[in-house]
């Protein structure tokens, strides 16, 4: 028996044929699938294939994310850490991208993996599984928005240092810029879906184009005699962690690739705004992972080849990526290309905030917040969750306020991004396998379906995620002090513990899992298919 027959589905050819029908039929098919999942569409579908792929690429913000995190592997493990950790991480993260894409294809809703997790367990477990997944995912997404915006503000001020050598970055300067940027992105995300789609359409060209131009320019402006040979960049380890193990020092470089390749399910959260969401969203996720991994590895290699004396990095700007560009291109050339890197970072925040607001909207729509659905309302004019957008902006600003208490604390909050998100991705994948065949769990694959290979990919994803999360939560330097300890895991655990206490104390009285917004008549009409 074929996999399609096992799950009671039409053949791949028939399914794909249905998905590439006319735009009007696409919308009907999207809405019909959404109705089978218990929801009716409240958004306007304006995102096509290009916009969705551009969105998925932008959420990873390859060039800007590498610029923000390149200093970490270079400092902790040397150039070998930069090159090998990116290669290993990008290959293993394919299992994450594929596993998530398969789930998203089956459950293309604004709730993303939060909604899927609750659907993939028996009814008695749906409230607690949905609650934990939702809060873990929202925590990671807000930390991602805040950390990327904080990184962007640092990149802009780093450019000021290059242009004005006597300037010293002050924390309050960065906080004010951080807040202003968040407000700007809040305003942009208050646009109607059509405006968001038109804006997002061009992000991918600037993202990939800036990476290619930087690669070519660095190679063209670096004298052959100053280029590091392959025998150096693939083998040179410089243990800057203080830990006695060079292997551990090298593995600390995973922070760069894992922080870049996160928020995989962002495209899922705009599914209710996407045409042919069941195929467009998962394909965009998977292809974005492949492109980011391949182009990002080449960019990292070129940066190491052209780095010069790595002991002089990161330089006055505090950013090794910018330091290398300044060394090879001079001030004017570096500033021109750096402006595009900052623009890519701005695109990343723009898309991350859009995805985050849709998750908050879905969570509130399902009654998981004690807000009586306030955050789950759409603006009547824009048909977008404007209230949820500004809620995320507000919480992100509060995270930035912690910088005045301790930069260690705010960095710990920001580092939760990859830890919390990657852990939230494990839940639906594990639940699907544990409860496969259960009478109350009927997983119907979407067009993106891995068939028999899916189990092996899921197993790889499971063990890789546990491994990389352990590394990301491990203290990066030794000896341990209050300022060097990695607080990401304790803070994540503390926040989740508080959410569970709230659930058992009060939340279970009003939340019983994802809540359908269909009327009684609409539910009766589609009951045989649900």
UniProtKB/TrEMBL annotation:
InterPro entries linked to this entry: AA/rel_permease1
Compartment(s) where it occurs, according to its Swiss-Prot or TrEMBL record: Membrane
Protein species of origin: Kwoniella newhampshirensis
GO MF terms held by the record: transmembrane transporter activity
Keywords assigned: Membrane, Transmembrane, Transmembrane helix, Transport
Region of interest: Disordered: 1-21
Highest taxon, organism lineage: Eukaryota
Membrane topology category: Multi-pass membrane protein
Protein name (database record): Amino acid permease
Membrane spanning residue stretches: 172-190, 202-222, 242-262, 283-310, 330-349, 387-407, 413-435, 455-475, 487-505
The keyword Transmembrane is annotated on this UniProt entry: yes
A single GO cellular-component term on record: membrane
Listed Basic and acidic residues bias regions: 1-16
